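Reviewers of the previous submission asked for a worked example of the structure-prediction workflow described in the proposal, so we include one complete record here. The input consisted solely of the amino acid sequence. No template or homolog information was supplied to the procedure at any stage.
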Amino acid sequence: MRNWPWYGYLLLAIVIFALAFFFYFKPRNAELQSLREQREKLEKEVQVLKEKKKELDKIEAELVVLNATLKDLEQIIPQKKEIADILRRIQQLAYDCRLNVLKFRPQGEAKKDFYAEWPIDIEISGTYHNLGIFFDKLSKFARLFNVNNFTISAVNNQTESVTIGAKFVATTYYFLEEQAQPAKPATTPQPRK
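From that input alone, the workflow returned the following structure tokens.
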């Protein structure tokens, strides 16, 4: 090796470099490229997951708002089991307003899509001022009521506490509970003979 010409040393260096390149640097470069591709793929997945997390957070925030709205609506339109209590509270409200309840007759329910209407025929007597107080308090009632077919007239034998009579229909509402429909059994056609 001592007697090699200078290009022999150069050729040996090129061979050593080529061997190092093909057996060490090239496989390392391939590994490095593979790791870069995996990192890019993982970064894309992380970005997708971050966007899905944002969407999930948005949906959860909407769910909180919708649950609060549902609770507010349940206050306005109760479940059926609460109706009897509400009817007692209306009667008590009339008595508190110093009105005489002459007739308080719930009528049949009218079922709609997801709720039912329950009209109540009410006939009361008292003073015009007390009737106004009654309707004012009824309008501030937590539950929803519509007043229809309202008539007011003077009573024949007026006293200081009874000067008018009023008839109206107060309609309240409640949610219908979903009932599972029974599945119809499948009928199999009978073979012909």
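The chain has two domains: 1-76, 80-175. We consider this example representative of the routine output the project will generate in years two and three.
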